[in-house]
Write a structure and sequence with these properties.
Blueprint: E1 6-15, E2 21-29, E3 32-37, E4 46-50, E5 55-58, E6 60-65, H1 78-88, E7 90-95, H2 106-119, E8 123-126, E9 128-129, H3 135-140, E10 147-150, H4 163-170, E11 177-180, H5 184-193, H6 203-206, H7 209-226, E12 230-232, H8 238-246, E13 252-256, H9 258-262, H10 267-271, H11 284-296, E14 301-302, H12 311-314, H13 331-340, H14 346-361, E15 377-387, E16 406-416, E17 419-423, E18 426-427
Parallel strand pairs: 1-4, 1-5, 6-7, 7-8, 9-10, 10-11, 11-12, 12-13, 13-14
Antiparallel strand pairs: 1-2, 2-3, 5-15, 15-16, 16-17, 17-18
Helix pairs in contact: 4-7, 7-8, 8-11, 13-14
Length: about 450
């Protein structure tokens, strides 16, 4: 029986678990990291990567994506999305339940896991979606990182906007509840107020800061009443950040997207409906308060909310245009560009995009460059800048709201389970990730 495959990464700038930087080597064997040292003697047979001048980070764990399979594969599918992940340094993802059919039963969850095992180049996990009728599934379905509740910005079975129905879910079980926090009643009322306006900028007024705050307040109230593990998805407003700064129980976490940190309502003038997402882009003031909350630990980590739509769909006139934008290919370079500009540190980015996610979702052996942990790694180049180009994107939708932005920290090599899945522009489509587990 042959020994597991070895990979030796030589002389990279490493981000260690304590956040310190060192120049050193990392040896992997099979799917695991086995040694981290300033210099490691090669054993045979070992594949080597010369990483001089590059920075080695834990692979990104993106904890909120919409990969559209099954049912909406014309926008994206698990294969194309995982290729985009590999190119972006994302080695694991957690995917949302608003596919067709909805992921609201064990059978639908099993179907997604089976599809992913055949198609995904990176590691994967899938949320189960809450409806008013599927409480038994919410309690028993596995493996899943948690229950997704759409409190607003949704229609059909996944919309849960009545406090009574929400309380029934918070009251039973211990599983993490992740909420899309927007108040549907306020959105409906404001849609009527702003009816007939086709400027996409009105989207941020219809689904305003108050709509987000009201829903977050309700979710927090229910979480505190039942001491239920709560995660607030894609936090977008200064008001929500200040609410959590004043009142954040130990069992509550929150995330923010790069677009809510880096884009604001001025983007509508430049990119029109490409800037339309839920919850919407906010003001420059919101950007600043969210950044501060992230740096202070009020917000715990970063997710992309990768939600692709076709160019044809986005070319329609508001309000007939769908909300959402892609993000897995650009999230790491965007954040590392901010680090190189002095807004945060590379170690903070590594924590926000990997370790903190693994901790929050109880994903074992992910998010650190340390012996015994999984060999999910990304080598990035922090010495060169290059622009986001539409023609280079691997996401099926073929566009980015950050097109033209000049970024650094682009992945050179992405490693999943000790295997090179992306290297210098080439994706190895033979690699397959594994289903994530959650404690």
């Amino acid at each position: 029986m042959s020994s597991p495959k070895s990979l030796l990464i030589r002389q990279a700038r490493l981000i260690l678990p304590n956040g310190e930087l060192m120049i050193g080597d990392v040896l992997t064997q099979g799917r695991q990291i086995v040694e981290v040292a300033s210099k490691i003697a090669p054993t045979t047979p070992t594949q080597e990567i010369d990483a001089q001048g590059l920075t080695l980070l834990p692979g990104v764990i993106d904890p909120q994506v919409h990969f559209r399979e099954p049912g909406l594969e014309y926008k994206e599918d698990l294969f194309t999305a995982s290729c985009a992940c590999a190119k972006g340094g994302v080695t694991s993802f957690l995917e949302m339940p608003n596919t067709r059919p909805l992921t609201i039963t064990q059978q639908a969850l099993d179907d997604k896991l089976e599809r992913a095992s055949n198609k995904c180049l990176v590691n994967y996990g899938f949320f189960i979606g809450a409806t008013a009728e599927n409480l038994p599934d919410l309690l028993l379905a596995k493996p899943t990182p948690g229950i997704k509740i759409f409190m607003g910005s949704m229609h059909g079975d996944l919309l849960l906007d009545e406090e009574e129905a929400l309380e029934a879910i918070f009251a039973q079980g211990k599983r993490l509840i992740a909420v899309h926090a927007e108040d549907q009643q306020r959105i409906k009322q404001r849609r009527q107020e702003f009816a007939g306006i086709d400027n996409p900028a009105v989207h941020s007024q219809i689904q305003d800061n108050q709509a987000a705050l009201l829903a977050t307040q309700l979710a927090l109230k229910l979480s505190k009443k039942y001491q239920r593990r709560l995660h607030i998805l894609h936090m977008s407003t200064a008001e929500e950040a200040e609410l959590l700064r004043q009142d954040k129980p130990s069992w509550v976490t929150a995330e923010v997207t790069p677009q809510h940190l880096l884009l604001n309502t001025s983007a509508y003038e430049k990119i029109g409906t490409f800037a339309q997402m839920n919850p919407p882009l906010r003001s420059l003031h919101d950007n600043e308060i969210l950044w501060q909350a992230l740096k202070d630990g009020v917000i715990d980590f970063i997710a992309t909310d990768h939600a692709p739509h076709t160019l044809e769909e986005k070319a329609q006139t508001y309000p007939n245009t769908p909300s959402g934008m892609p993000g897995v290919e650009t999230s790491l370079p965007l954040m590392l560009t901010e680090a190189m500009a002095g807004r945060c540190t590379v170690a903070q980015v590594a924590n926000w995009m990997s370790k903190a996610v693994a901790v929050a979702y109880g994903i074992p052996n992910k998010g650190e460059i340390t012996p015994g942990y999984d060999a999910d790694l990304v080598l990035v180049d922090l010495n060169n800048y290059r622009p986001v180009k539409r023609e280079e994107l691997l996401s099926k939708c073929g566009w980015s709201p950050f097109e033209g932005w000049n970024l650094t920290g682009w992945p050179v090599t992405t490693i999943v389970g000790g295997e090179i899945v992306y290297d210098k522009g080439q994706v190895n489509t033979q690699i397959r990730g594994q289903a994530l587990t959650f404690s």
